[in-house]
Amino acid sequence: MKNIAASIAISTLAATGVEAQEERRRVAPPAVYDVAPGLGDFTDNVLFGEVWERAELKPRDRSLVTVSAIVSTGKTAQIAGHVRRALDNGVKPEEIGELITQLAFYTGWPNAISAVAETKKVFDERKIAPLANSDAARIELEATAEAARTATVNTTVAPTAAVLADLTNRVLFGDLWQRPDLSARDRSLVTMAALIAVGQPEQLPFHANRAMDNGLSNTEASEVVAQVAFYAGWPRAMSAVPVLSRVFETRAGKAAATQNKASQGTEMNIQITRAKTSETTGPADYFTGEVKISGNYKGEEPARVSGATVSFTAGARTAWHTHPLGQTLFIISGKGRVQKEGGAVESVGPGDVVWIPPRVRHWHGASADEAMSHFAVAEAENGNVVTWLEKVSDEDYAKGTAID
User: Fold this and answer.
1) Residue-wise over 33-46: b if at least 16 C-beta within 10 A, else e?
2) What are phi and psi of 284, to 5 degrees?
3) Proportion of the chain in helix, strand, coil states, percent, rounded to 5
4) How many Å apart are CA 236 and CA 252, to the nearest integer?
5) E runs forming strands in 139-284
């Protein structure tokens, strides 16, 4: 009898242990398991059981990325839980305050003020004293990069929006980015996460390069995209992938060129890129139809110019894209089309010169019934020449038929 009783007791303890273990594994709110059990499983087993456990990005950085995505998208109800997790993961209260301040500039004051209210509840709960502005030395931004950024703002923004240009130079970069309670690397990390979350990949190259210049690795940058996918949705994460890929490629090419230059000494020579000897096929991710690229060249620093001859078969075209410092197209032969977002589809022909302003979303390619070749020239900003976006649909392309 005693053995039977002991067996029952052991079985009961075992069952209780399994239930307790099951309960410990549950991360989502209890209602999730009643309403959307699949969501509960993915939350427990994939998001927190797999992604948050990946060592390629430290828990502290994952918290910075996650809180940034939540604040920037206005998901107020989720802020407190992730602020608690961030504090547990080693993010300092001062850093959370600076994160919110940073995102006020990049995703709007209303989101930031809402985040403050929720964060204050957590600070009160944990008896965190009111914060004050730090008296530590301010961060010194890299002088050459800042001079180039300021010149770009003065050239491209000031003529149209003088007040915005002044605030960008004097307040955003002259004050906010120099505040010491959040490192330059972390400010870029926070801003990257927010830009992906709100669907602004065009602005990503500058901040990704800035973060990587300050120590963020390619692997860590890739993990940022994966982390944000769960908190802002797959479409926005996927839109950031080709942009980040271009940043990786540009930085790798620049590093290789620097190494090659160092191995060959400092002598500079005239370079000739022979016609047709370097012809490649336009990548399917960035072009529709058959496209050939030849004579691809890139000036050596301090020059920032690069270009190539691009030949489109009838109906072929680029994807939507932007250039940080604009682009010039010299039409060599055939009949082509070019369009900026929201504008009319324009026809172009031999001898025409097309100028696309900085950061204007646009596409260009051949007409529907005739091939076209052009020579394209653009300049790099912080190593980035182009930001590729989504492809031009057949419907959008066909809108130009009547103009040809």
Assistant:
1) beeeeeebebbbee
2) -60, -25
3) 55, 15, 30
4) 25
5) 280-281
- pLDDT tens column, 80-114: 999 999 999 999 999 999 999 999 999 999 999 99
Phi, psi of 347 (to 5 degrees): -90, 145
**CA separation for the pair 185, 365 (Å, rounded):** 39
303-311 mean pLDDT: 88
Task: Please give the pLDDT value at position 267.
Answer: 60
Q: Return the ∠ at Cα 401 (arms to 396 and 403), rounded to 5°.
A: 110
Question: 229 vs 252, which has greater pLDDT?
Answer: 229
DSSP class of residue 77?
A: G
Contacts of residue 28, defined as CB under 8 A and 6 or more positions apart, other chains included, come to 39, 40, 43, 44
H helices, E strands: number in the chain: 14, 13
According to the model, what pLDDT value does residue 116 have?
Answer: 98
Residue 19 has what pLDDT?
47
Rounded to two decimals, the pTM is 0.64
To which residue do tokens 């100028």 refer?
Answer: 355
The Cα–Cα gap between 241 and 294 comes to 26
Q: Round to whole Å and give the CA distance between 37 and 228.
A: 22
Q: How far apart are CA 167 and CA 148, in angstroms?
A: 17
Dist. CA 221–CA 46, nearest whole Å:
20
Which strand (E) or helix (H) includes residue 226?
Answer: helix 218-232
